Structures are given as structure tokens and as C-alpha cells.
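Let's inspect a concrete specimen:
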Amino acid sequence: MKRILIVASLLISWQSWAQGEWNQKFEQLGSMLPTGNQFRTASGAPGADYWQNEANYDIDVELNDETQVISGRETITYVNNSPDVLDYLWVQLDQNVRAQDSNTPGVTRTSMSDSIAGKSLLRITRDYDYDGGFKISEVSSTSGEPLRKLINKTMMRVDLPTALKPGEEYSFVIDWSYNINDRMLIGGRSGYEYFPKDDNYLYTIAQWFPRMAVYNDLEGWQNKQFLGRGEFTLPFGDYKVRITVPADHVVASTGTLQNASEVLTSKQLARFEKAKNTFDKPVMIVTPKEAEKNEQSRSKEKKTWEFHAEDVRDFAFASSRKFIWDGMSVKLSTTTPFATSYYPKEGNPLWEEHSTLAVVNTLKTYSNFTIDYPYPKAISVHAAAIGMEYPMICFNFGRPNEDGTYSQRTLEGMVGVIVHEVGHNYFPMIINSDERQWMWMDEGIDTFLEHMTLKEHYPDFNLTWGTPKGVIPYMKGDPESMRPIMTNPEQVLQGGYNGYGKPSAGLVLLRETIMGPELFDYAFKEYAKRWAFKHPYPADFFRTMEDASGIDLDWFWRGWFFSTDHTDISIDNVAWYRMKTDEKGFENRVSAESKSLGGSGDQKASNFEEAAETFTFTGTSDQAYREFKNRVDDDAIKAANENKNFYEITFKNKGGLVMPLIIEWSYKDGTTEVEKLPAEIWRLNENEVTKVFAKDKEVVNIALDPNFETGDTDETDNVFPRQMNGSRFDQYKNSNR
């Protein structure tokens, strides 16, 4: 008997393959993921011997507002928690992306057209009067002895005088400077913006100091060059930073301000203390009038602002005499972080009205989905045409017209980018993934939580971005312009969709359709708790989501993340049957009048107006019972089904992605019903599946995926009859869900 079952199973598998290409979509990921070990378990949790190295910084830095130069001196203390002996350390020099010998211009694609704007032409010629990149003047031990170094573009190797053994630490000093870039002219994730009307600068400063690279259990030293798109991978550590700026500047920074009484006026200090104990609305700390006065002062004096930060992977700051500053605190279940914004007058009234409240809303929603926000503050800084994130601070666009008016689109863009960039405090600043390798692990997950935040606090906004419906234009595009999500960001062709929109849409699909909110939310929160202040990799996320939910999702990761297949499932054939009531024998004909869509060459039917096909009910034969002695009640079964409607539907998978089948039935009495079948319905045949549905009511319309939950790229073959004028499907098609 066992042999018969095995042969039958093989026959079914062969038939499935023979009917179309079988791509093993339900096989386990297996060797595509690293083998679980004592460092990272097969369940997705950190192992008993998990380790990560640490880098602590003590930095003095000065910003020269006359020359736009940053100069600094830092002491790095590197702690080797690994089981390995290290003969050298690698330091990242990301400012070298703009150095004269940078690889970035050489690997950047350019093209000609019949008309080119001046700024665009400069991007080709690079005829800038600008000398970028770090100027390293010293690399030495703390006692002043020079250390041998080798600079390889955006990476610097520092050779240690003696090998650094497990459990040991080493401190060394770097002196450096660089010319700050004009973001309007040259671009960049940090730099300055110049305001001609009042002859002032606004500085958003990041990647501003030589930073330790990550050494970990999966790859050893991170050694992928910074080319511009792929972001950063950094170890955690503690920071003590002293920032010297003109005395009339206001500084926003990672970390907690240590000397507020030295850098703020008595009135500003009092407002600051009031804001930290206010929970209903923002309090002005530096008022618009004070900011305008600062704009005109041009102080030649200097002030040093000191900030300390613990357990952060990076450090950034912003400085300007133009800053208005407001803030308030947020009550979470276990923490009370300070939500705050810095912005020039050019940002108002938009920023005063919306920025800090957007920070508050972000911290509330993200904390619910992950862990309570652990840092003391979250800052939103207004800067033109940018959205960029760092621990406790981010730089965001969104500027009203000069008369102060702004459109709904500007408001939604500004709130959206603030939510997104503040949300990056979680991914990757706390759940510290490798941005240089896996763009989706921070951008895609963050876009998902951005969508959930907007959905909760801004329900009137356009909420399609980051959803299955929002990703349809991309999924139905040219396959040659796509890459799998599991692609390094430097090789991605459409970064917005590939790194942000599609991963987010996949998580929305998992939560709302495949797993359900209860299972998804628990597993997602478990991932955040497991990997907070650690370095997760893709397998850790995939495995945790399965481990904590009890759902095998390998088929989903394989299709959505590892391939460029898309969702396109059609209703290919529909046949309607009723039980034959006369007793003259069985005749189950499938005639030319069958309600078929012509998938097998049959005549097409356009509606359910013709009579149903009939089948004859027969008694169950003795042979069907095999060795069983008890029997079913055929008469009762016949009576229960003689008035039912049976709909045999054949679905075809045209796009390659296996997905749940979400069917909306519209009945003759005006009612509707939505029925969901798991994706595993495709497990024996990935290309075509037929299923019979028994209904008490007569069906007039059938719609597949009516609410765009799976991102089906062709809605025209998702309905039967093919023309459904005025149907709910048409309403869904044009809705903003």
C-alpha cells in the first residue's frame, strides 16, 4: 500500500510538472540561507555565543562657518569581543566618495540628450571648484607613536603594533579635516545649504568623522566600498563629542546635551526644561524672533556644545544661526523620549504646525510594533530636498511657498518623510542591519511601519505607497529593469520600488492577507526584541517570522524576495452545476453552453444567465468503503445538496508568484462574500488549479483579489463575467486603498 501511495504521489508531481514548468516554489530555502550555529540559530535568534565588537569615540570637532571646513580629532577605543585575533583594523572614510580619486564618478552611468540643463551638465563634467574627501593628518597611538596605515578609497587599514586578542581593546587617534560640500551643487547625504537672502548657511553634518567598520561572524570585516547608494554598516558604541561653532549658532545633535546652561540663554533654558515636561503640544525653545536676530548677528565668538550618547552606531549633527527650535515629550509605556524639531523660517508655517507632532506619532506607532523607544530624544531637522537618518536625528525636506502656503501634496510629502526618517531610529539604528548589503532590511521594513503610522494617524492621506496596490506599476513593468529584493543596492535598477515599495508591500501582504495581524505582529515584535542593539541578517528576519508565528513562509520569501516574478492570476474557466433532480440516470455533460471563459478552446460565455449544467447524484458503492464497516447517509447528503449551486473554477498563474486566492462572490440577492484560500493550493501545480465551490445562493459575479491585496497586475482577467459594469470591483479598482 505504501508503495502505491508513493507511486501515486510521484505521478501527481510528474503531471504537475508536465502541465507547465515546475519551479519548486514550495521547497524550503535550504542552502540559500546560512546554516544555523552557536552565533545565529536556525530559529532566527542570536545564539548562545553571539558576539559583536564595539567602538567608542571621544571627539573634538570645529565647524568653520567662514571657510565651510570641518576639522576634528578623535580617539577611538575598539573592543574585540570576537573569538578571533585581529592584526589590523578597518576604518571607513565615507567622505572620500567625493575625493579626486573616488571610484564613484567612474562607475556612474551618464548619457547625452538633445538638451541638457546646466546643473545636469556639471554632473557629467564634474567641473566643480571643490576638493572633497578626508585630509588625514595623523593616525597614532594615544601616546603619539605613528601607526602604519593604508588608504584604499573609502576604507583605511590601520596596522596594530601588536595583535588584538579576544577580550582586549585598543585606543588610537586620528586627526582629520574636510571641505563641506554644497548639497545644491554637488549633492550628498550631508553638507550645507546656502541662503543668499540673509547670507547664511544651514549645515547638516554626517559621515563627518572616520568611523570603524563592522567585523562580524558572517563576513569578517565589512569591505564593500562606499559608492553612494549603498549606505552604512557600523558597530555600536558610546560617544563623547564636543562641537565648536559660532556663538550665535544653534546645534541639534545625536546624544544628550551636557552643558545646556553654557550654550542657551536663561530664557531658552527655562523653555527647554518646560518642554521636557510637556506632553500635549510643542513648546518653543528658540523662537522665530530669536532665530531672525541670530541670522543678523554674525558673531565672531565661539561656543562648544557637548553631547554624550550611549549604545549608538553613529553620530550626526546640524548647526545654523537660522534655527527655530521646539519640542515636547512623549509618554510611552516605559520611556518618555523628547520629540523635537529644528527649522529655519523658510520652513514655516508648515514645520511649526506639523513636524514635532509627526515625530510624536512616529514614536508611538513604532514603539507599539517593536519596543519602546530607548533613546532620550528624536530630532527632525528641516533641510532642502533631503531625507536622511542617523541615531536620534534626521534631516527632512518639505518647504512651503514663499508666502507660507502649501499644498496637500507638500504636507503629505513632508509628514511622510519625517515619519520615515524618524522611524529609521529603529531600522537600522537600533535593529542594526547592514545597509551596505541589504537595502530592504532598513528601507523596506521602515516603509512598512511608515505606512502603518500614516494609516493610524493620518487616514486622509494617500496611503497606497508601500502597499500591494502601490507596487503594481512596478510589478507589471519590464522584467529587464527589475532585480530581486535580495540584491545589493549598488546593483539595483529601481531603488525606490526595489528597496522601499516592494519589501513594504510584501510585509503588508504578510500581515493583512497571509498571516493575519495577530500572528504577524507578535512575530515582528519578537524580531525587534531579539535583535535590538544587535546586527541581524536576512536569514534572522525570515527565520524569526516563521519561528514566532508557526507558519512556513519559505514559499513567500522565495517568490517575493528572491525572484522578479509578479502576481497575475486569472479566472480562466467557470462552470456552474446543480444536482439533476430527475432519476433517469447520470449525464454530466460539459457542452458548448458551459459557463466557460474559453481557456480550453470552449465557446465563451459572458454571464450566468443560461441554465446551470446538471450532475446526477448516485449512491456510494461498496467498493468505495474498502475495509470500513460504517456507511455515510446518501439520502441525507442528497437532501442537503439538491438545492446548492456548485461552481467549478480554474485559476491560472500567469505571473509566476504563487499567492492566496481571494475570491469575492456577488449573489443574486445583492449580498457578497469574500473567501480566502491559502497559497498552498498551488503546491501540486504552480501553474493551474481547479476547485469546486458549493454555494447556497446563486452567483452573479466573481472577482479575484477585489481589494488588490496581492498586487495582481492585470485586473481584467480577475472577474467573471468579464464585463462587470457598475460592480463593486470597479469601485475597488478606482479606490485609494
